[in-house]
Amino acid sequence: MTASNRLFRWRNPYDLAGTEALFAAAMAENAAFQAAHCPDYARILALRGFDAARLAAGELAALPPIPTLYFKHHALLSMPDRKLPVKATSSGTSGAMSRIGFDVGSLARGARMVLQMTRYHHLLSPRPCHYLILGYQPRRENQTAFSKTGFGFTFFAPALSRTYALVWQDGGYQLDLKAMEKRLIRAAKGTVPIRTIGFPSYTYLLLRGMEERGIHLRMPAGSLITMGGGWKQFEGQKVEKSELYRLARSVLGIGEAQCVEFFGAVEHPILYTTCPRHHFHIPVYSRVLIRDPDTLEPVPEGTPGLVNLLTPMTASMPLLSVMTDDLGVLHPAGTCGCGIE
Fold it and tell me: What's the pTM?
């Protein structure tokens, strides 16, 4: 069994200390595969003077990160297109989209990761529920990662219904928060829990609008609010997470403990899930470096910088080390207090 497959079969999804050597071995294994099967990536490594021995020794920062912007303009493939049964794109809000393809082996590793993470965070349930997806109604033409993951989240518990905020009308997507509001009012009269998943911006706009109209409901026990993605064109209306949690309790009667947030990127298909204290913790399937925006050198813990995401999950493309344009801070292990070290 390959090091990557052993890593994605690890029982404890947050055992970073126990997987340090295995993670380094999986990264070195994946880097060698990508260099052998993707000539463009091999040239990138050669131009940067990459020494594979440093990666095998655990020096993850030695691997040249590739900016997400690069994937929006260049295709880096290590397998022929016919071997990629699933393809996804980024949202394209900046005008260009990353196009990512996944082979069967990578999909299998991803499935094991999702199963482990959702079990750990108690998101799997046999109890049926109504889903409110604050995102895109699926269409064959819509290949965005968020439309795929939004639909995928509706399998964490059996779906009795799916209601979408972005519906296809007159040749384009239209935001229909009124339909979401009506669905919530109807759900409050029953006993079946609801689960929302979607952009925090739409979640905020929906709940704020309901509160302004004096609508205060109580969702059935077992209901959850889950969010993922950025604020995109609503950046000017962005609020603190605490305001979202307040609205959830005020409008829907859903407590802060039942609000969960996800983080990920199409170029880095790892599932990050907030803990009960609403912090993101790094799972065994990845590592995170924070780099200085000017020098790209790693910065100490507690210092803000560009988020560099690493994983050996994908064989079909060299997504080992991806540099996002997000700013983040890496905090010392164990400082959260939730129990995850």
Answer: 0.91
